[in-house]
Design goal:
elongated
Length: 140
């Protein structure tokens, strides 16, 4: 992690802006699988949130299949066997996504090849050309 990333304050989202719904987990299970709602469905409306505008913009511009066209981030957590652990997991994943969006991407600076690299390129082209010129028909 660079020095710039360490200095970024962690942005927290108020609990009232996050919707958490318990649901049944997918996949194989035992006798409890059809009765216990251990998975958690997290919904976070990016546009209606109290996040700073530039972070909202970066979140909405991400090509992430978890973000709907309406700007709602949906996270499904079912990694653990308890609802509380899955709830924590979903909130951590949301925080990670927001923290990643808080990092301002560096502007790309245009670069040009050095004079020496141009010269090396031209010399290698000349050598290659000479090798290919020798492949012509032989005169007797």
């Amino acid at each position: 992690m660079s020095d710039d990333q360490k200095n970024i304050p962690q942005i927290t989202v108020p609990e009232n802006q996050i919707e958490l719904h318990p649901m049944r987990s997918q996949g194989a299970g035992g006798q409890n699988v059809n009765k216990v709602e251990t998975a958690v469905h997290l919904r976070f409306d990016i546009r209606a949130s109290s996040l700073p505008e530039e972070i909202k913009e970066r979140l909405l511009n991400q090509k992430d299949q978890r973000i709907t066209k309406e700007g709602i981030l949906v996270i499904k957590a079912q990694r653990y066997r308890t609802q509380e652990k899955n709830r924590e997991d979903a909130l951590e994943r949301l925080q990670t996504i927001i923290d990643r969006a808080a990092i301002v991407p560096e502007k790309r600076r245009k670069t040009r090849p050095t004079g020496a690299s141009r010269l090396r390129r031209l010399e290698s082209k000349e050598k290659r050309s000479a090798v290919k010129a020798l492949r012509g028909p032989v005169d007797l």
